[in-house]
Amino acid sequence: MAHKLLNLLALSSLAIMACSFGAQPVNALSATSPHSARDALRGHDSLAKRKRAANDKAKRCKARPVPSASDSASSSADATLAAAPTSSPSSSSSSSSSSSANGSSNDGSSGAASSPVSSPAPSSTPASASGDGSGKGCLAWPNGNSDLEHYKTDKTSTIYSWSESGPSNAAEIGFTFAPQLWGWKNADAFGKVVVAGYSNVALFVNEPNEAGQANMSPQDAVGLWNQYMEPLRSQGYRLGSAATSSNPNGMVWMNEFFAACNGGCKPDFMAVHWYDISADSFKSYVEQWHTAFNLPIWVTEFAYQDFNGNNQGDLSQIQSFMGDVTGWMDQQSYVEKYCWFGAMHDLVNVNPLNSLMNSDGTPTNLGYQFLYSG
């Protein structure tokens, strides 16, 4: 009897287990799978990361901006550059100083450099400090409206973006925006946007002597000058020359440009780029261009960067170089503006220790030096 009772209890237990673990619909299994919730969170997290990456990317200067012809005046509220540093930091050149950051040439050696150390404003330099008042400091700015308010001092007066459009808040903060006819890609947009009253100064093509930048012959550049730049003179604009890289062929290109124009192209100032690590060489280069063309100088890109070597310097060397050359330029009446490369999150192939900007958009220690003392 006991044996039969045990069998009956066993059968009852099996029946109960069968009811408890019966097959569920596939969708129910998916909903309750131990992996499904984690996978869903991973998907949302991945999407959020992609959005953050896209936002970060929009704030970076890529090897020197290559503006799109489809850009219009409406984009000025948050202009960003599509390509940019030189040669402007991505094209190659035979000279160590031939490249600029907006699309410049390099050997990739700067990739080993460490990122700038994020640091608050020095306690001795309050946010309200006015700087030294020279007004020669200039910002090459691919960041749209973001964080611009941190970079206006008596030292800084001018901003450009390698494009025809700039931050919509530049004027209210106190900057003069200088639109640039970067090259073929933004010529149409430049012609539509840059009109009387838009600004009072304009920059010409970016490193036309570099294949990775504007890349055009002096003869073709004459055509662009006559069509888009020269008409601005009667509308109250001062006009800057093309900005060649510091590749030795830059001077050759410029002389051929003036020869092809038969005396008709008359910029009001010469724009130059320079990358290397010798303060004396920098000064000689700037003097050479002033002497050759007898015009004021805008150094629209420069940094402590050797594109042909591995000695990119530490922060103290970069600070010393900056102090030396900016102090010298402040004393040269013919140097009107100078724009360090760079005030951006990503310096592309330029040593990141040259950055004026922390990851949160505030100035680095080097940034404070540039903004307040040079």
TrEMBL record:
Keyword field: Signal
Gene3D superfamilies attached to this UniProt entry: Glycosidases
Residue ranges of the region described as Disordered: 37-141
Lineage: superkingdom: Eukaryota
Gene Ontology biological-process entries: fungal-type cell wall polysaccharide metabolic process
InterPro entries the record matches: ASL1, Asl1_glyco_hydro_catalytic, GH
Signal peptide positions on this chain: 1-28
Biased composition (Basic and acidic residues): 37-58
Annotated GO CC locations: fungal-type cell wall
Record domain Asl1-like glycosyl hydrolase catalytic: where: 140-370
Biased composition (Low complexity): 67-131
PANTHER family for this protein: ALKALI-SENSITIVE LINKAGE PROTEIN 1
Designated name of the protein: Asl1-like glycosyl hydrolase catalytic domain-containing protein
Organism: Collybiopsis confluens
